[in-house]
Amino acid sequence: MGAAARSLPLAFCLLLLGTLLPRADACSCSPVHPQQAFCNADIVIRAKAVSKKEVDSGNDIYGNPIKRIQYEIKQIKMFKGPDQDIEFIYTAPSSAVCGVSLDIGGKKEYLIAGKAEGNGNMHITLCDFIVPWDTLSATQKKSLNHRYQMGCECKITRCPMIPCYISSPDECLWMDWVTEKNINGHQAKFFACIKRSDGSCAWYRGAAPPKQEFLDIEDPSTALSLSRTLCKHTHSETGGCWPRSSHSAEFFQSHLLSLLYSAVAPKHL
Prior knowledge:
TIMP metallopeptidase inhibitor 2, disordered C terminus, two-stranded parallel ribbon, alpha+beta
């Protein structure tokens, strides 16, 4: 038997072994604005993790037990979710499969957003919005009570690089990565995308409730005037103006607020 023929069984065995071994894929998540995370979640709570243990959660299709981490928590406040308190949070056993690690002992408070499992339980992954409570801005904390909910019918579109555009008036352009190279920038910390009375959406900054004139604004003249000024300073390398003039003046409102927020960074929020 030739060397090539003898190598075939070995190659087949290696191929078979490769298909049977579990893959060590890393968890991958797309960045989302905190408001998007709030709106996408079934449950949003402020809580402490008291203890944790590994538990079986049924079996896979091959009959093998499915392991999960169970956190017993102490709920401090619920911002969104069912009428009953959350008692247990479940997550995957490792970060490679999007499992979340929480400090236990009841000393560290978290904002936790995730999916409902019923009976006072919820499931979380690394793709959910889970951050230490003391890292949130005052605006973010207050927005959890009502502000974020006001914009759940709006769409927040992330801008990875300029030029970028919105396609409808119910969108807000999220510019943090372009302006600060950080998804946890000023728009994430100090802004919410709010739906107005005319059906359009626009960024609103601050912790106080939006004023009625902001919600009722329909006159696009201010946005049009500002857009002409800013257009001179937002040319792409190809000479294209951003936002493009073909967009309606109402569309400019979200663009302009996205651009202006860095120039009027909040001082007292």
